[in-house]
Amino acid sequence: MWSKMEEDSGKLINSVWSRELDLPPSCVEFCPAHPSYFLVGTYNLQKDDVDAHTPEQDAGDDDNKDDVKSQAAKPKKAQSRNGSILVFQLQDDNNIVPIQTEPQPSALLDLHFNPIEGFWDICATVSSTATLAIFKLSPGPEDDKPLKHLNTMDISSLSGGDISASDGSEILFLSVCWHPSRADMLAVTTNTGHVYLVHLPAWDKGWKLLPEPATTHTLEAWTVNLSPYLGPTNSPEEVFFRIFSGGDDSKLRFGTVIWSPSDDHLTETISAVEARGHDAGVTAILPLFVLEDGSELLVTGSYDENIRLFSLAPYGRPKNLVEIGLGGGVWRLKLINLDKTPSPTYNWRARILASCMHAGSRVVDVLQTVDGEHHVRVLGRFEEHKSMNYGSDFHPQRKDSLTAVSTSFYDRLLCLWQLDIA
């Protein structure tokens, strides 16, 4: 039913460009509207906070403990963190040019551009002080600061005062995810184990966080993803979709909800189900597509260093179809392309870029063979990073080869590399 593969399989890739950054990078993404531009978010635990553990002090523990985000999510006291957003341009000759640096009062943990056409230049970021910020990237020939800040709100303001940190504790936003078919909705996760939905009727005002969690974990909620639900609706205004979340409790949770934008009412139509089978925290979730029988295929990453393919039926327990070890905790997954046109060797194939913490980056194929078996194949591995690879992304319009940027935390490295995947 499932198989293990060698962790060191695949072609070893060399960098074509690298640079040390001023602050540790935590996330990176290319802009779909301006594909030669990409953003890097940074996370800095200030060393003048005497009682707080620094990332360097925590680096000797295992993956789950030396992860700076795990430490940030379990503070002994309120810690001082800051960060920045860096704007870079990847030129045709593979030189990377720094364009802009926007200092941030809090450390950034995640950033993503809106996936809806017409809004591809809109980027959401989340921070260590539970703030959500929206930016617009608008490069121009005479503009040396193309990234424009539109608005920022913290969790208390977003929830109308319903949610705030209690004395002696703090709330962090750990990840953010846009709705795949609604430009005005996103989801955020917290170190307190909650997943919240946020409605953005305008980019600069009127934001509302739905105070009732869409789902909850018993430990940190590391990641969230959303996918459209294809069932019937009672009203054209109602939005059906599925929520997937992963937590430090080693659980993948998913359920189906209805959202009414007119009154921001959320109704759970299919109660959340827990998928077991992960041996450590679930840190990455990538929905692929829905099969004819209504089951949805989903890829997960975990601290246990495995990537897994699940089949999620509308009702009942999910099925683990295949898993392999990638040599490091699988922190992020990014879909490169999905081919559902049957070939002589497979029925469908998903090509994925994985950020694998201390193991570096991996390019993998997840596929179903013509015999109906499921396999994961490592195509390439980039291992020049000397510390945690939390972020990787690829140029969205270069089709001759995969052109990717990846980052590592403690050594503050930004690298450019290429892999022929034709």
UniProtKB/TrEMBL annotation:
Region Disordered, residue ranges: 51-80
Keyword flag Repeat: yes
UniProt keyword annotation of Repeat present: yes
The protein's annotated pathway: Protein modification
This protein's name: Diphthine methyltransferase
Keywords: Repeat, WD repeat
